[in-house]
Amino acid sequence: MRFFARLTGLVVLLYGAWMVTINLFEAVTGSNTYEPPWMMFVVLGFGASGAVGGTLFLLSIDGPPRFRTPMIRAIGWVGMFICSALPTSLFYLLLIMVAISAVVLLKPIDQVPEKPSLNSG
Fold it and tell me: Which residues, 6 or more positions from 23, have their beta carbon under 8 angstroms from its beta carbon?
């Protein structure tokens, strides 16, 4: 299950970063016009929530001990869920992946064992 959670976090992280990058590029070059104009900020917000949420979710699984808390994992999952709720062609795939990864929220968080120092001995 942890493999699937890592995969989901990585997919949503890449999808959110791609969404932000592409929409900012199109806004700067003028190749895409948003109607109404504030819609660009909505799309960027969804993308940013996916990128940040995916990062926090991944850090809560494999990151440093300070990120391995239930609160960080839940915040990351909510960010991923917000990003996956944007109606796109990947809507059903992402929403199902994020919904299934919610099972990881119920699992206890493993702490990283401390590495032995070179001075001990």
Answer: 32, 40, 43, 44, 47
Calpha distance 116→102 (Å, rounded): 34
Dist CA 79 CA 30 (whole Å): 28
Alpha helix segments (H runs only) across the chain: 2-29, 39-62, 70-84, 91-100
Q: Which residue has the tokens 């016009």?
A: 33
Q: How far apart are CA 116 and CA 118, in angstroms?
A: 7
Per-residue pLDDT tens, the chain, 121 aa: give them: 889 999 999 999 999 999 999 999 998 898 888 888 899 999 999 999 999 999 999 999 988 888 989 999 999 999 999 999 988 888 899 999 999 999 988 877 765 555 555 665 5
Residue 67's contacts (CB-CB under 8 Å, 6 or more residues apart) are: 56, 59, 60
What interhelical angle do 2-29 and 39-62 show, nearest 10?
150
